[in-house]
Amino acid sequence: MKSSSRDAALEDGAAASLTPLGIFKCLAEDTRLTIMQLLSETGELCVCELIWLLERREQDMPARETPHAGGERPGISQPKVSRHLAQLRDCGLLSSERRGQWVYYRLSPAMQGWRHAILMAACEAQQEEVARWRQWLVAMPNRPERCAE
């Protein structure tokens, strides 16, 4: 089931009304910022790829860099990732499309101009890390066939 034009119009409307404060609030959470950086780098990913990358990122992160109290890592669950994706979609930053059993996410077409520039600046500031994530993705086992390179 593909995204309806009504859903696309809602996403575009949400992005168009997003203020600088709103976009910074959406991106202020580490997982949401990482999702946006991953999608900016790759163009499109399914939920399973995002979960795998976020889990791998969390395992790779030294305890002192973990944004959680006491260096504890609560883990990345599918429901938690889905909640973050829903928040980003509701803000108008993402669009989604169901293809068979997979839901694919990409940056909203309305993510242009200053909104896109903010995200690109965040990616540039972490370009080495974002490049490492891309390498992990290429090595991901059992990727959905559409994504396998």
The gyration radius over C-alpha positions equals 15 Å
Main beta sheet strand tally, sense and closure: 3 strands, antiparallel
Distance between the termini: 24 Å
Helicity level: 55-70%
The mean pLDDT is: 81
Largest sheet: spatial strand order: 1-3-2
Description:
- Mean pLDDT is 81; it is low at 1-10.
- This protein has helices at residues 5-16, 20-27, 30-42, 47-60, 78-90, 114-125, 127-138, and strands at residues 45-46, 94-99, 102-107.
- It is built from 7 helices and 3 strands.
- The protein is mostly helical.
SSE order and pairing:
Blueprint: H1 5-16, H2 20-27, H3 30-42, E1 45-46, H4 47-60, H5 78-90, E2 94-99, E3 102-107, H6 114-125, H7 127-138
Antiparallel strand pairs: 1-3, 2-3
Helix pairs in contact: 3-6, 3-7
Keywords:
3-stranded antiparallel sheet, mainly alpha, 149 residues, 3 strands, 56% helix, globular
Summarize, please:
The protein has 149 residues and is mainly α. It is 56% helix and 9% strand. It has seven helices and three strands; from the N terminus they run αααβααββαα.
